[in-house]
Amino acid sequence: MIKSMTGFGKADVLTDNKKITVEIRSLNSKQLDLSVKMPSAYREVEYEIRNIISKRLQRGKVEVYVSVESAAAESCINIDNQLFKACAEQIKTAAGTAGVEVDSAAMLSAILRMPNVVSSNDRAACAEETEALLAATREAAERIDEFRIQEGASLISDILKRIDLIEKYRDEITPFEGARTTAIRNRIRENIASLGIETDHSRLEQEMIFYIEKLDITEEKVRLKNHCKYFREVAANEECAGRKLGFIAQEMGREINTTGSKANDTDIQILVVKMKDELEKIKEQVLNIL
């Protein structure tokens, strides 16, 4: 089954007093590049989250966002009022001694940056919350996987249409091959005649056969046909086929390029350019296949 590396999945899970949301986004990448952004209270289950996602997604640039909303109002910080007051009085006393006016906003900012004046109320997540987070992660991973399957089906459908076009252009080369051979023979004879040189006709014919054989593109057409057939087989039967399809596309490119270098014919060159255009589009899309 062909899957895209681009996808999005989101899941929400409710506990008694919290709503936990997990969002997963992914783009194409050569390897699995996984980043997780989550509240510090849930860091102890980060390894499990990474394990769940890596088994599902396997490859791609994956970003995971975990957010937690509390149903009840909670203070996330604690201010030591006595310490705050003591710091304020000391600042005012020092400023008065130095004859410096105290700016209230500046003093407030300075006090809040002092050690132990402000502390965090973060607490470790309870077992219910961590299980809810893992459940949300599994659901989000399943949804992004479904998204990738849908995207993959769309991608491979378009790619196979372009494979069909390449085969169509390859077949259209055949009528021009006979005319090309005749044109090459005539051009060689005309060039020799213009030089006014006596030639051995049998030797000339033999040399022309050798030359035309070097320009023969039958093998390239056969190999290109086989590559197209193999591309379809891999797309239909293999999972995580992105890399292999990329390698096959490279081999197709070699045959098309060799055909172009041997063509020596305007009509064939036009068809080669069309095949190259479709192949470049295939290569771009294959990069996004898992």
Estimate what percentage of residues fall within beta strands: 5-15%
Coarse shape = elongated
**Uncertain regions spanning at least 5 consecutive residues:** none
Structural class: alpha+beta
- Taking the alpha carbons of the first and last residues, their distance comes to 10 Å
What helical percentage do the residues reach? 55-70%
Strand segment count: 6
The biggest sheet amounts to: 4 strands, mixed
H-E string: EEEHEEHHEHHHHH
Strand order of the largest sheet: 1-2-4-3
**What is the residue-mean pLDDT, rounded to a whole number?**
86
| Count of individual helical segments | 8
Radius of gyration: 35 Å
A few lines on this structure:
This protein has helices at 46-57, 81-98, 104-112, 127-195, 201-214, 218-237, 242-263, 266-286, and strands spanning 7-14, 18-27, 32-37, 60-70, 77-79, 118-120. With 290 residues, the protein is an alpha+beta fold. Helix 1 links the parallel strand 3 and strand 4.
Explain the overall architecture.
By secondary structure, this protein is α+β, with helices and mostly antiparallel strands. Helix content is 64%, strand content 14%. The chain has a 4-stranded mixed sheet with strand order 1-2-4-3. A hairpin with a 3-residue loop joins β1 (7-14) and β2. α1 packs parallel to α4 and α6 (218-237) packs antiparallel against α7. The longest helix has 69 residues, at 127-195. It is elongated and about 115 Å long.
Present the secondary structure layout.
Layout: E1 7-14, E2 18-27, E3 32-37, H1 46-57, E4 60-70, E5 77-79, H2 81-98, H3 104-112, E6 118-120, H4 127-195, H5 201-214, H6 218-237, H7 242-263, H8 266-286
Parallel strand pairs: 3-4
Antiparallel strand pairs: 1-2, 2-4, 5-6
